[in-house]
TrEMBL record:
Protein name: HTH araC/xylS-type domain-containing protein
PROSITE patterns in alphabetical order: HTH_ARAC_FAMILY_2
Entry keyword annotation includes Transcription: yes
Domain of life: Bacteria
Length: 168
């Protein structure tokens, strides 16, 4: 239960940072009909943003945390030695991707490397997807299509044409 509450808190933080990245904070008046725009202040300087963005990418590349299907923003922030709020700002302003999208991209790239290895051709595709950090088939399929622009079947055919074989 606590994990889902933390996820909700992070989601709200990401929404706040996303609104900042757009350059405005939009609020609804008490009547609920009129919107007000107020600029938000920067929490991180541009230098801090660059440093923390680099640190985050180094941690992801070095520690391969994205391979854990249960990776949370809190865990990633702790490994990167930053707060969850700093992580949210780095994701939205520095890397320009939400948490889930960033992880999906790293996971799909890991999957593509595995699929090009002839020794992996005998393994079940969804077993490999789980090893790359995807918790479900649905999440994997959706991320795969969004990131590669191809369905699994189309990707399978493109690898088959180059001598690779996959088991769906």
């Amino acid at each position: 239960m606590a994990e889902s509450l933390l996820g909700t808190a992070f989601y709200k933080t990401v929404l706040s940072v996303r609104e900042y990245a757009a350059g405005i904070w939009q609020g609804v008046s008490q009547a609920g009909s009129a919107k007000q725009e107020q600029p938000m202040t920067n929490c991180l300087t541009e230098v801090d943003l660059m440093v923390l963005s680099g640190r985050l990418q180094d941690v992801l590349d070095r520690e391969l945390l994205y391979l854990n299907p249960e990776l949370t923003p809190e865990c990633l922030a702790a490994h990167a030695q930053m707060t969850v709020c700093q992580l949210a700002e780095v994701l939205m302003r520095g890397i320009c991707k939400p948490f889930d999208r960033l992880l999906a991209e790293y996971r799909i790239e890991a999957m593509k490397v595995l699929l090009k290895n002839p020794k992996m051709a005998e393994m079940n595709l969804f077993l490999l997807a789980h090893e790359c950090g995807f918790a479900s088939r649905k999440a994997f399929k959706k991320a795969f299509v969004e990131y590669t622009g191809q369905t699994l079947e189309a990707y399978k055919e493109s690898l088959a044409g180059s001598g690779k074989a996959l088991i769906l």
